[in-house]
Amino acid sequence: MTQLALVIDLNVCVGCHACVTSCKEWNTSGSAGPLCDERPYDANPTGTFFNRVQTFEIGQYPHSETLHFPKSCLHCEDPPCVPVCPTGASYKRKEDGIVLVDYDKCIGCKYCTWACPYGAREFDEKAKVMKKCTLCVDRIYDMSMPENDRKPSCVKACPTSARLFGDIHDPESAVSQAIREDGGYALMPEWGTHPANHYLPRRKTKLKIHMDELERADNPLKVDGQLPKPAKGESTMDDVSAW
Amino acid sequence: MKPAFSVIFLTTLLGAGQGLFLALFTHQTYALFGLLPMQSDAYYGFGSALALLFLGGGLIASFFHLGRPERAWRSAAKWRTSWLSREVIVLPAFMGVVFIYAVVHVFGYLPEIVTLPSGLVIDLSVVIGTVGTLLAFALFVCTGMIYACLRFLREWNSPLTVINYILMGGSSGFILAAFFSATYAPTETDFFVGWAIIITLLAFAGRAASLVRNARLKPKSTMQTAIGVKHPYIVQRSMGSMGGNFNTREFFHGKSASFLRAIKPAFLILAFVVPLALLALGLFSPALLGVAFILQYLGLMAERWFFFAQANHPQNLYYQTIG
């Protein structure tokens, strides 16, 4: 069983929104029709997006840090939005685990959004159907593209490689390794939805230096207190310092 | 959640229609066993036609909730998993049965189906009425479970949701039946008023119980589980859209906290206290029963508004600050 998913590294996300614009660009241009925008250059602009970057402030000034948090459909392994759909327009693909909406079957009752705790689906006010992240299903299997381009649009756009894409059921995949080795976690685990997308936490790289490492224990200077005075042209003690 | 008026009308109109049909068939059942005088076929026939009007109104209201109403027929497909789909099947089935019940009464087509050993004659309308009663309860369960099955919406995720839909619909329908009888069969009014008082009291208790339960709920999801960061102070600075978006429109009621606080006593008084008082007075002055139904209907609309507005969706954690 394959379960395609994104792994998002919050440690390197800089909140540039490149994934948002690239997602919108790809998905508004496809055969499924545009993702509507209303009043895009006016007051109160609104529109349908599959992916948004949110920003949180953690802690209180001055001990605070900013967290940029990209959020899209998590392609849950047990998606609560799918069984509630009365028409079967919402479905989870067996072959790769992508949760999709059949825009031709959706009646726009919005019941699926009530059943999603993450707010991952957005109603298209012009098409009058529910829309959501497709993991760029019209891209990742497109054999006319070079293999390197067969990735979701957001992944290709990320300038810091904060977004990884792959099969989380394959233990050897890069995403599985990242989840395993870098502390990947799922959002709102309390609901048992088993999101396929994972997030890698912020990590501080710390260098631990012990006191005895600050001074060289076998420094010959400590032996006799005499500064070595090699003549010009002779090699120095450490090949770096010279006097 | 944002209360949608289509759904408020849908659930309140259906409740009144189901309740009225249940009230009429309850009377017919009492009469069948000789506990009450059997009324004319026109009484049951036109009464259930009135119920059908309410059900039809609810059905029409439901279409206004859909983005693509022309595809509504597709929604019967997933009855194995979706309570909404089950409701879509049960509602027209129930309406059909109520229609047949009305027709056999109005046209007096009441062939005997079976005679019980006790000598009790079961005619066609009793069989249809029994099926209708089962479907009326099935419809209540479907409507209630649409909300009660959503485990993230903890204000709804309780058996009380289903029980209250049954009791409030029953209360509304029995008051309507009392008013209908006051006009067409005045001798039977007291029977319906009595049951209406009992059911309204039960509905009052059920709704109060759910209010108490909801007041004690602690949210399961927090900012910490929503973004997976262990820190007591997390504040959203941007939700990723510069105006609102679908998520800010669909899941917030858009009214002030004081409005929400004011509507709670308002619906408790209008939907339960006032009808109970008017029902008691209606024993002597039947015209008040009509007033009781209308005022309670307004109260039930307020109740339904509050039912939606009170439900706090965990997705709201992600949509707190526009920027």
Outline of the structure:
The complex is a heterodimer of chains A (243) and B (323). With 243 residues, chain A is of the alpha+beta class.
Structural class per helix/strand content of chain A? alpha+beta
What is the CATH superfamily classification of chain B? Formate dehydrogenase/DMSO reductase domain
**Radius of gyration of chain A, Cα only, in angstroms?**
26 Å
The share of residues in extended strands of chain A comes to 15-25%
Question: How many distinct helices of chain A?
Answer: 8
Fraction of residues in β-strands of chain B: under 5%
Number of extended strands of chain A:
11
Overall geometry of chain A comes to elongated
List the helices and strands and how they pair.
The complex is a heterodimer of chains A (243) and B (323).
Chain A: E1 4-9, H1 18-28, E2 37-38, E3 46-47, E4 51-60, E5 63-72, H2 81-84, E6 90-92, E7 99-101, H3 111-114, E8 122-124, E9 129-131, H4 137-140, H5 153-157, E10 163-167, H6 174-181, E11 198-200, H7 211-214, H8 221-224
Parallel strand pairs in A: 1-11
Antiparallel strand pairs in A: 1-10, 2-3, 4-5, 6-7, 8-9
Chain B: H1 5-32, H2 41-63, H3 83-106, E1 112-115, E2 121-123, H4 124-148, H5 159-184, H6 189-215, H7 223-227, E3 234-238, H8 246-250, H9 257-282, H10 287-310
